[in-house]
Amino acid sequence: MKRIISLLICIALMLASVSSVVPVRADTKPLYQVGVIGILPDDYIGAFALHTANTYESDYKSDLSFPMQGMTSTPDGNLVVLDTSYGRVHVLDKNLYNILTFGKLGYGEGKLQYPVDVAVDKDGNFYIADFFNNYFAKFDKNGKWIFNVGTEGSGNGQFNGPSGIAVDSSGNVYVSDQLNGRIQVFDTNGNFKAVLQTDVVAPGGMCVDSLNNLYVVDMRSSVVYKLDSTGKTLLKFGSAGTNDEQFVYPFDISVDKQGNIYVLDRGLGSKKHACVQKFDSTGKFLMKFGDNATKIPQPNGTFLTPGGFAVDDNGNVFVIDSGYFYNPGNPFGYPVGIRLTQFDSKGNFVRKVDFNESTKGRLINPWAACEDSKGNIWVTSWTNFNDVGEVDIFTPDGKFIKAIKGISDKEPFKAIGGIASDHNGSIYVGLGDYVAKFDENFNFVTKIGVGKVSNVFGVAVDSSQNIWVASNGTQTVVGFKSDGTLLSQFSPAHAPVGLYVDKNGNFYITTTDDNKVYVYDSSQKLKGSFGGGGRSTGKFWVPYGVVVDNSGNIIVADTENGRLQAFKGDTFDLLWSTEREFYEPAMLSLTKDGKILVADCFHNVVRILSETAPQVSQFDFAVRSSVSDVKVKAGDTLNFNVAIENIGKTDDSYSVKVENNLPSTWTFTVNTNTVSVKSNDMILIPISVGVPMTAGSEEGGTVTLTFTSTGLPNLSKSVTISIFTPEVPPVKVSFVGDKVPLGSTGTIDLSVEKADDLYGLAITISYDSAKLKVSKVEPVFNLGSNAVFLENHDKAGTIIVGYSLEGKVSGVTATGSLIRITFTGVSEGDSNIVPTDVTFYNSKLGVIKTEANPSTITVYNPVPPTLTVDFADGITVKDSSFYITGKTDPGCAVTINNSKITVGSDGRFAYSIILREGANTITIVSTNKYGISNKITRTVYLKTSTVIVLQIGSTTFTVNDTPGALDSPPVIKNSRTLVPIRAIIEAIGGSISWDGTTKKVTIVLGDKTIELWIGKPQAKVNGVTKWIDDTNHKVMPEIINGRTMLPLRFVTENLGAKVDWDGATKTITITYPAP
């Protein structure tokens, strides 16, 4: 009956020339979504995951399309944010409280799959561009669905990835048809009007200004276009890059009432560029909001991958961060760090609202699901990019029960995969290298398949309670008995992914290598295969899950094509395909009554599908609140809505009973006792809660509304809302400064870490008057121009301070030093300073908690400690090892050239340092326990040159005045001195070797190598050939009296020494290194 009515409505609307219903293609079959597991409350804004699979293929170039999570504002100043995880729209008030949520996950009337952009017309109607559903949807200002427009295709009124939407003041609706590379125009009733002729290649986010000019982002070229209503380009600016006025991965756009243009760059590139840029009306860059986050959680004012934004009438910028995305060109992502951030018009961070991915019941990238014998749903999820998984369990109606994160605390799940139930009390979870068996009470039982499986993707249980595993890592299908005993294994044509075993023992295996399904009989012989890569029906892109329904039909999850397809069990002929309404289905399983569980890894839910239409009761309804567990600041008013939807066949009315457990000082308003709702309709019940300024930290309670059907009096449903003020952490009060000099003054500050909305404070401070005397007490922090500061320290040992604003004014944020006390040290020693009776008054919350701790103040003698050392300034030494001794006052700490050294109980110390050649500065510092220091700085000179003295005809020589003997005396030949060189080389630290075959002498010193040959006037220095004497080629190495004699000057000067000759005494002096 419902479908007949829908058909009549469709005909009537078409006769009225309104494209308000999405037609169903002849080759498709609807599957009825009868439940969804994992959707969080209405005030949770979710974002999708793109981890297990994405959608980019050679015939579907969706690389620019993730994430898109559009935002806008309404005529009354509320904020609109799209929810890409749960297919819904959130409306938030100026305090960022969720006042309305509408839309449902799916395809068809009132349903959204990947809502990417939103616009609001002058009457408050919402227009949503849905990328995957290939339509745009219109809802009224209360979230009631009006119509959908569009189907997949390239004809007029058809779409291929609509990515942006805008509505002008005349009601014209502009839609970015991204993958078709065009912009289509419709009237306010959804009738097609035109395709604009533009230069835009890949249109994305859109908006209009007050003159109905259209602004659109070209996501491919990173150019922003301003167009008139005909598509003519009036202005364009921007290019690809990471500088100002450039974009890496742009999507969203907005124009304020002054004509300034704002562009969102999601920043997904090899170099991140996540920000919102502001331009004037001519496209001149003005400023940017936000920056790249460098860690998770992201610091305030930074982004991981922003998906959308909006600008209000005051120039405030609101940005939704959609999570962490990576791999530009073929993007993947994960909804961690979902955050709504507000900036003021100057780009300053104002506030944030986080949507925690760790919220109980939040599924992240679910891979598989199964039903146990109690009807509970078990779901495996890859919760982050580190392959850390968990199993989440829900009741049949979707209430979260428990999360299992491992087989024990010491062994968490990793690389989690498929899951299956034997419907007899056991659950089997596929992991990296085994299958974990649990009972239905969530207890781990045993490991199965250790050493026999790897990367378990699919798990199935046959009619004999045997477990079969798609071991992708070993490219085998392996079977076990329920106790873990190995049955058999076989190797399918390709690495298995999904796996199902029917009642006859036939195996159905999906493979992603070739995008096919393979069928094997019970003896594991191949019966056939079907599929192959492609986007047309009967083809697959990355098929994951597979099941066989009660009619023997094979149902396949065509994951990256976003659909399910069915094939005949005997011939493998295509029976039907759904629309592309299930992005992205991973593993499939069947419930006991034949429903299909689809793990939707894109939307982070499990969908429950039926091949038959669900029965609609005569009387039934659903109730939900736009907020669930909300924190409200003191002084704020929380406005929200409770939606009641009549999902029965008959119009009905409902009595409303309110149980108010809020504090008596709070106000609560709901203006109805009975509501009437037509069948298939919904109404909103506005509720207001006022929180007084005097509300304390974590004050609040709950409100429960119970609705009872008039048509079926025993049918009641309730919704409970928890409302509390946020916890206000205690203000930490401390003293800064811990020393006062004896006989002189020092300051101690009373400081706070941070006190928001501080209106005033009162504090009493006690101290030891035998050691301290108060000289002055004064404010340091300026509380305000009308602030009053009072203090009294007439009584020794006590200080009383009062510091407050006057009148009805807001408090200020105070950090750091508030009050300064000047003390005079009276007697040496330690004294406690203790804060008592500390009262801080918050202008919104009243008296707030404080955490004040005593401190110790030391009165010290300011005279520096004595310090002496045993060496004079400017001395010259020859030994590089320099030993220092000295003395200071006992108990002092001593450093020498910043190195801390040991000081004896009598104050004596000793230390050795290594000197460098030349001047060395030595600084000795002695510091007593009060931090008073004495310092001595002196210079010590080191001279360590080697001086060698020889005499012609003498075998005696000296090294630094130390005598030695040569094995042969120096001689003069050809007017040049020849010496037995070994003793000289070794004296300056070098080495010498002899090659008797070639008669070559090799000398090495540091980085210098000299090679000389007996009887040759040339030598090599570091491989370069040189004359031994440029003016006398007769000079060469010789063997005289059986001794090898080398030219002295050539050798020593090439090694870096200086040679001096005294002709009168025939004395040679060698200095190394040369001065």
From TrEMBL:
Q: Under what name is this protein listed?
A: Cohesin domain-containing protein
State the organism of origin: Caldisericum exile (strain DSM 21853 / NBRC 104410 / AZM16c01)
Q: Where are the NHL repeats?
A: 102-142, 146-189, 234-282, 527-570
Coiled-coil ranges (or none): none
Domain of life where this protein originates = Bacteria
The record's annotation in CDD domains points to: NHL (cd05819), Type_II_cohesin (cd08547)
Cite the InterPro entries for this sequence.
Answer: 6-blade_b-propeller_TolB-like, CBM2/CBM3_carb-bd_dom_sf, Cu_amine_oxidase-like_N, Ig-like_fold, Mao_N_sf, NHL_repeat, OmcB-like_DUF11, TRIM-NHL_E3_ligases
Q: Where are the transmembrane segments?
A: none
Q: Which residues form the Copper amine oxidase-like N-terminal domain?
A: 966-1070
Entry's Gene Ontology molecular function annotations: carbohydrate binding; zinc ion binding
Signal sequence range: 1-26
Residue ranges occupied by any DUF11 domain in the UniProt entry: 620-710
Q: Keywords assigned by UniProt?
A: Repeat, Signal
PANTHER family, alphabetically?
E3 UBIQUITIN-PROTEIN LIGASE NHLRC1-RELATED (PTHR24104), PROTEIN LIN-41 (PTHR24104:SF25)
* Gene3D superfamilies in UniProt: 2.40.10.500, 2.60.40.680, Copper amine oxidase-like, N-terminal domain, Immunoglobulins, TolB, C-terminal domain
Enumerate the Pfam families for this protein: Cu_amine_oxidN1, DUF11, Glucodextran_B, NHL
